[in-house]
Amino acid sequence: MEERIKYLFRKFLDNTCTKEEFEEVFSYIRMAEKDPVIQAFFDKVYESEFEEQPSMAFVDVEGHLKGLSGPAVETASFGKKLQGMMQRWPAAVTVVIVLGVLAWVWNDDMRKPEMAAAAVNIQVTKSTERSEYRYLLLPDSTEVWLNAESTLEFPQKFTGSKREVVLKGEAFFDVKHANKIPFVIYTGEVSTEVLGTAFNIKAYPDMEKITVSVKRGKVKVNYAKKQVALLTVGQQVSITPKAKLVNETQVKETETSAWQEGKLIYDDYMIGDILLDLERVYNQKVKVDVGGVETLRVSTSFKRDQGIEKALEVLCRLTDTELEREDGIYHIR
Length: 333
Prior knowledge:
32% helix; 21 strands; single chain
């Protein structure tokens, strides 16, 4: 039990508790009022885990919460029950209890259950480095494959009328169907909304355009708060925010998630954007020493396992340039 209390309190202080773990923490607190064994466990937790934690707040003799920004908060009858506990327990344990009381006060005084849920429904951020790929299973059982140098933000638990996430980079989504609860991915000014389907989004901030490709089902794409496409299987939309251009095309179903199978496909991409992508995929530095090359547009494809040098040689042939490597950096000249 001591290890469990230690684990729960550490998660509480790190703000990573689930709703169920949050409730478990306070079940132990309530038990400790009458059980000296549980209280002894709290003392041990303090000695091993929280000795260096400063006290951020306290409950005064009248049951008021002090020490946080703003006015004192009335903790009602529960605050009075804590008075004896505050005197017996160390300061760091007091912090945990008081923060929990504050969450309960919000729920009782403001009469907004969704605010209490928000207090424990933590935002999670998952990222990949260059040349790294990652599989994620979201709280609603939606599956996500995150491409290199990408970030996905999502709540620890989906609540309300929408399932909302934020993507920077590229990811393939296989969304778990939930009737009347759409799944929405935000990528800058572009949002992609579905109920249950499989599709790919490529939305790196340093690239010219954002693309959405559908492998299964139906996808609604909005740009600048307006619907610009309703895609089905084998359809793709490319949005160029700077030029405010929207281009819808047909693609092979196998190409919607080609990167998962080791294929790098570029349809009407600027050379500069292809190079940025190759740098991410292979974690290599590429420098263009010839003016005007980066803005040239090409359509090409590569196999990832062939390596960056083979891909760069193809681009050099397409642009009538040469490839050299100096000090670990590839130069196009």
